[in-house]
From TrEMBL:
The protein, known as: Glyoxalase
Signal peptide limits: none
Superkingdom of origin organism: Bacteria
Species per Swiss-Prot/TrEMBL record: Phenylobacterium parvum
Alphabetical list of Pfam families matching this protein: Glyoxalase
């Protein structure tokens, strides 16, 4: 299964500040940090990281790439989405029920990466 996923960042310091704030409602904090990468974990499941691309090329969002982050409740989905927008994200779909067992919200981080936060059940 997935161990971690990284997203490229054009401004590494801005990305770290953004993800520290946005992932806090999920109980996530930096688990590993270095000169070009920082990975976040809440102690369960896969980690999410931001990095300066290894080839030092432009950080661009992948077409169709979208990490989906599991939340413990619908309220946490709402909190993460609100934190993202308050820290410079753009809304790609407000929190809401997408199907009977899926409550999700979507946003793009300051580098344009599309993220979903959701609660199943």
């Amino acid at each position: 299964m997935l161990g971690y996923m990284t997203l490229g960042a054009s401004d590494f310091e801005r990305a770290k500040t953004f993800y520290r704030a946005v992932l806090a409602p999920l109980g996530a904090k930096p688990a590993m940090s270095g000169d070009r990468m920082e990975l976040y974990s809440n102690g369960t499941g896969a980690m999410l990281g931001v990095c300066i691309p290894y080839d030092k090329g432009a950080a661009t969002p992948g077409n169709g790439v979208m990490p989906a982050i599991s939340a413990s409740s619908r309220e946490v989905v709402d909190q993460v989405h609100a934190a993202a927008l308050a820290n410079g994200a753009t809304c790609e779909g407000p929190p809401g029920e997408r199907m009977p067992t899926f409550y999700g919200a979507y946003f793009r981080d300051p580098d344009g990466n599309k993220i979903c936060v959701y609660k199943m059940g």
